[in-house]
Specification:
By secondary structure, this protein is α/β, with parallel strands linked by helices. The chain is built from eight helices and seven strands; from the N terminus they run E-H-H-E-H-E-H-E-H-E-E-H-H-H-E. Helix 3 packs antiparallel against helix 6 and helix 4 crosses helix 5. The protein starts with a strand and ends in an 18-residue tail after the last strand. The structure holds zinc ion (ZN). The site of zinc ion (ZN) has 5 residues, from loops.
Length: 239
């Protein structure tokens, strides 16, 4: 069971905002992908938690994820508590992902940066044999690798995933959150119409693609160093 790649983010649509193309790229390579949303979106300015669940399920279908679920942490008040770590660890033990993607640990929204530390510490506690987690008592499991999706952080990525073939599907998954993104008269500064979402999404993906010498990309940070066996096949041209 080492074939899962899991995403753990604060809000429904965070994955679609930052690493949806990567999930599609992983799916195309035959890996199973899953999303754990920590909150249900009950504090959103627009739409109800039920609306957002429908939208999240639509987006999950577009991203071809095999599993998506949401915990019940309070939207707008995600806290790194032991209880919350155990809740997440229970899901990690049940699904047993090899790779986990978390939001980058700095950002504007407290739920985002808190989820980075909370997610990391949940991955740690999930591997402790003597710790009991809620649920059916699955054996301990610690993911092998943790990556941080850094799209909304002003930080130089460690690497970029080429999402060129998936950029339109990635955009479609984001626009599935109609209550948040569809063109609306009452607009307001927080919500931008569909055309602007499209332009911004493609511009960001193009920016990170250019850094890596491909058309469209999504950025990630890893805390560990990289390991190389053969210098002759390392991608991204230097000069
Ligand atoms: Zn968010």
């Amino acid at each position: 069971m080492g074939s899962w790649e899991g995403c753990l983010f604060a809000h429904r649509d965070d994955v679609e905002q930052t690493c949806g193309g990567t999930l599609l790229a992983m799916n195309a390579r035959g890996w199973r992908t899953g999303i754990l949303d920590l909150t249900r979106g009950e504090s959103g300015t627009r739409g109800t938690a039920a609306d957002r669940e429908c939208e999240a399920n639509d987006a999950a279908r577009i991203l071809k994820v095999a599993h998506r679920e949401a915990l019940d942490l309070p939207d707008g008040n995600v806290q790194n508590t032991y209880e919350n770590r155990l809740k997440i660890a229970g899901v990690l033990r049940r699904l047993r992902p090899r790779v986990v993607i978390l939001p980058y640990w700095q950002g504007r929204h407290p739920d985002h940066y808190t989820s980075a530390t909370l997610g990391y510490e949940a991955c740690f506690v999930s591997g402790l044999a003597k710790v009991e987690t809620p649920g059916e008592g699955h054996p301990p499991h610690r993911p092998f690798k943790i990556f941080y999706a850094s799209l909304y952080a002003d930080v130089r990525p460690t690497f970029v995933v080429d999402i060129t073939p998936y950029v339109e599907e990635r955009l479609r998954a984001l626009l599935a959150y109609r209550s948040q993104y569809a063109s609306q008269v009452e607009g307001g500064k927080l919500f931008v119409p569909e055309e602007e979402i499209r332009e911004r999404t493609l511009a960001e993906a193009r920016h990170y693609g250019l850094l890596a010498g491909v058309r469209y990309g999504e950025p990630f940070v890893q805390k560990e160093v990289g390991l190389v066996e053969d210098l002759m096949v390392v991608p991204v041209q230097s000069i």
